[in-house]
Amino acid sequence: MSNWIPLWLHKLSSPPTFYRFAGTLLPWMMALALLLGAIGLYGGLVLAPPDYQQGDAYRIIFIHVPSAWMSMFIYGVMGVSAFIALVWRIKLAEVVAMESAPIGAAFTFITLVTGSLWGKPMWGTWWTWDARLTSELVLLFLYLGVIGLYHAFEDRRQGARAAAFLAIIGIINVPIVHYSVTWWNTLHQGSTVDIFGHSKIAWDMLWPLLTVTLATKFYYAASLFRRARTDLLALESGKEWVRQIAQREGKR
Amino acid sequence: MIRPGLARACTAMLRRDLTLAWRRRGDIAMPVLYALIVTMLFPFALGPEDTLLQRIAGGVILVTVLLSMLLALDVLFSSDIEDGSLEQLVLAPQPLALMLGMKILAHWITTALPLIVATPLLAAMLHLPAAVIPVLLLALLLATPLLSLFGAVLVALTAGTRRSGMLLALMLLPLCVPAVIFAAGAVAAAQQGLPWLAPIVWLAAALVLAVALGPLACAAALRIALDA
């Protein structure tokens, strides 16, 4: 009856099924990411009116805010799949956790760079030791620590489990990043967009922001699928299904 | 039957580690010497200006102690892994977390305690007002076990790897940020004559949490790292 969902999830966690599933979904995800990204950026950079106070400089928000959301979202995904990997020892969860880390680190880096580009004209400084900036920097170091620990082991699965443990420890930083503007009185502004309530931003500026956010989500999915597929092939290189794929590719 | 056995195992573990450390007394002095030299470099680099040194003294001492502890962390499990006694500990009937807790305690006694004893000297080198020194010592007494516990978890995670020194720094320093912020906050408040109890209480709360969870996390991490 309704137990097809757990059954389907169970099947999906097997590497060959996931390889095929990710392969079919990948081009759609990438296309959606490009399309939504183009629409959102056109809406944000061209259609949206300039801000009454910040002029055109505010437009960096359309890159900065989605990246910042992704930096936390990907850490959340990484933490949850790290937990699944440690508790149930599912190989796919290890792969998802470890392949999320570089993407998350990239988004965190983009957030920091665009933030400092925005900070120069608005606050008059590239960097300040404010609670949100510092905690976001710590988030970047946590990502780098996870990546570094993963690659320090010779056995990849053991490295993945150790790094997954570190990812779980570091997850305490995510709420600190999110609530830093509420808990401390900081230079960084509080949140303007409230998903469940009234946003303090005009609709003309909000819709491109949300569109770019959706685009980053799809980009993350596409990028993760591609990385996971490569990783699965390498991890399972001795298995029959990989041999079949290799033969098929060889014949072409 | 279980209880006396457990207490005896704990004291045996503690005595073993302390004896091993005492046999190599030279190693205990190393972090202290390192901290002295680093502290000595600051007046050279910044100029011997009393007001400036006073202002930065608390933070400099905290960071110096943190870095010296980081240097000493590497050896927490390395000799036990080499001679196989760590595997024996994992197989022992006593709970691994408790035994590791004892190891961490022994490590704290042999590395952090000498540093805390040397702290008044470091403070004097940087002209920290004498009235602030008790607050600094209190902050260090709470912050160093916190660092030891965090560090032990990460050292356990890197136990199976070859070169862990720089990696350890990369992983430990971000996690130390809150401890440094609160400890330095207490010292700075005391220096300005403001109430300094709140950050100390925060540190104490974090320490209580870390004492309860740290050894458990350390045991889990060690099991992962030795699982090859």
3D structure, described in words:
The complex is a heterodimer of chains A (252) and B (228). Chain A has 252 residues and is mainly α. Chain A has one domain. Chain A has nine helices and no strands. In chain A, helix 2 runs antiparallel to helix 8, helix 3 crosses helix 6 and helix 5 (131-152) packs antiparallel against helix 7 (173-183). The radius of gyration of chain A is 20 Å and the shape is globular. The termini of chain A are far apart. The mean pLDDT of chain A is 87. Chain B has 228 residues and is mainly alpha-helical. Chain B has one domain (4-227). In chain B, helix 6 (96-125) crosses helix 9. The mean pLDDT of chain B is 88. The chains are: A mainly alpha (252), B mainly alpha (228).
Helix tally of chain B? 9
Q: How far apart, in Å, are the first and last alpha carbons of chain A?
A: 42 Å
- Please tell me the total number of domains of chain A: 1
Q: How many distinct domains of chain B?
A: 1
Q: State which percent range the strand residues of chain A make up.
A: under 5%
**Count of helices of chain A?**
9
**Strand-pairing-aware structural class of chain A:** mainly alpha
Shape of chain A: globular
Q: Which two protein chains have the largest interface (Cβ within 8 Å of the partner's Cβ), and how many residues from each?
A: A-B, 20 and 23 residues
Report the order of strands and helices of chain B.
HHHHHHHHH
* Percentage of residues in strands of chain B: under 5%
